[in-house]
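Please review this pair:
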Amino acid sequence: MFESVFLQLIAAIEADNPVQLLLIALSIYCLAGVIKGVLGIGFPTAAVSLMAQVIDARTAIVMVIMPMLFTNLWQVFRSRKLLAGVAQIKILLVSMLIFIAFFSQLAARIQIDVLTVVLGVIVALYALHSLFSKPLTLPLKWDKPAQLVTGIWAGVMGGLVSVWAPPILIYMHARRYSKEQFVATTGVILLTGSCVLFLSYVNAGSLSTAMLMYSLLLVIPSLAGFAMGEFIRHRISAQRFQRLLLWFFFIMGLNLIRRALM
């Protein structure tokens, strides 16, 4: 059974060297898990952008679904605050889930080059904003419209390229969320979005048996990396690590754009 699934996977991703690709994927997902453990965010951004350097963007996007789901579930479990703050962001959450469900059905119809450019722009802009822009201050009276705009933006991005953290981070920074609020609320948002995205991929037929098995296999290095990231977070400056990481994301985003346009 496993051999059959593995052969299907090789055919699906057209890998010249499947063993080498597997080792690369294990390393990338472990690194993405470390990033998630240190920062609480960034798993799909790291995993998809790195995997898109060696396989096509659509396969990289589908492949991330199960590790993303399990790492978000583990983050929520570790925070022990599943429902904390959810009532305050219900507009953002509902609108995001609706747009993820809708746009994930369209993702398979979009050309790979277009998808790769979109992903590269998202990664690069996210890095630049985080590096150089001070968080906006959002008055309470504008909170509901801001939640709606953020939810739509995050839903479109999540449905098309499985990355919806950037607009949510901008919103949370503008609302001046504390560290505890940020971790708990982000965990819930990312977990619910992952669940909707998974069901949408299944409904659209984007998640084949081979891809599901491969994605499940990558859960192991992802959770191992998450554990290492938590260990690191308590022993080094997360702010310094984050800046280095954001520069890396910016370069990776530009490289994705270059690949799509050449």
Remarks:
- Residues 179-204 form the longest helix (26 residues).
